[in-house]
Amino acid sequence: MINRERGDVAKKTNVAVIGLGWPGREHLKGYLANDKAKVVAVCDMNTDLAQQLAAEHGIEAYGDHRQMLKEAGVDAVSVCLPNFLHAPVSLDALKAGKHVICEKPPALDAKQARKMAATAKAKKLTLMYALCQRFSAETVLAKDFIDKGELGEIYYARAVYHRRRGIPGGSRSWFVDKARSGGGALIDIGVHALDCAWWLMGTPKPVSVSGMAFGKFAHLAAEGTTFDVDDSAFALIKFANGAALQIECSWALNLPGGGTIQIAGTAGGATMSPLKIHTERNGVQIDIDPEVPGRDAFAGQTAHFVECIQKRKTPIVSAEHGVQLMQMLDGIYQSSVTGKETRIR
After folding, report:
1. Does the predicted TM-score (pTM) go above 0.90?
2. At a CB cut-off of 8 Å and minimum separation 6, what does 12 contact?
3. pLDDT grade, residue 221 (50/70/90)?
4. Count: domains in the chain
5. Which of 132, 157, 180 is a domain's end point?
6. What's residue 344's pLDDT?
7. In a domain, 300, yes or no
8. CATH number of the domain that 39 lies in?
9. Dihedral, 237, 206, 331, 159 alpha carbons, nearest 10
């Protein structure tokens, strides 16, 4: 389509999804709903699933991502695979000249995340991470309140994501095998709560972490499972601007499950979910219950990824954010092992 005012041709971004579990299928739905993207291929080791989805949408199916990167004519890929494959497959795509959005967590550790970021920078490609809570309707609205100064200076946040009983199942589950997952509850679900609160705080630079991670419920995992990860973790993170963030997360804990994000500022505060703004008017403390508009977080993040590629913008979940997020997660695990505060540089 020609834009006659600008005299250029609007080009769709050719995309593919690698890994067709639940997150991958959500990425696929987001792209299919985006008129600026064209899905050209899907890839999964389960070739029956890949072929089924490909047939539904008239696209190509692959069982090998390297073959797909060579043959499918893609500009960008979603990497929606188990944690231990995030870095190697993302690096394969970047080295092949493809933009990448990678599912959370960014990698197994900060070292891998740094390599991914350096490769994307050297290749002048977009590297984004799929931390979908930044794109939820509540988070977007809360961020707008914060960015407009409604809460004043943000100096404290609390991020909670608890499951009373919710250890990922199956005797072959990679989630509970540290070599493949990088960690347990913290890196799996805690990363969402941590990232969302950190984003609302303005992503200040982390400088130190004090934390404890526990593995008390291995007996609840499926028989024959290698269970060498945390089922709960708790930490305090300090930032260069003087702010602090407290995180709690668990797959199994003898307390009620549930989650919340709390943000405290000098002029007001916010709680999610549901979203409430805590403020003061005429000397009276009041709570505001905003009407939150409907929004698909997965569609929002894939649309942002495509926009960043086309307009050469830095994603709001940048490669550098991925490195810092992994530094915080690494720091919590290290602090738990040493019993000391971990400094982040």
Report:
1. yes
2. 35, 36, 37, 38
3. confident
4. 2
5. 132
6. 97
7. no
8. 3.40.50.720
9. 40
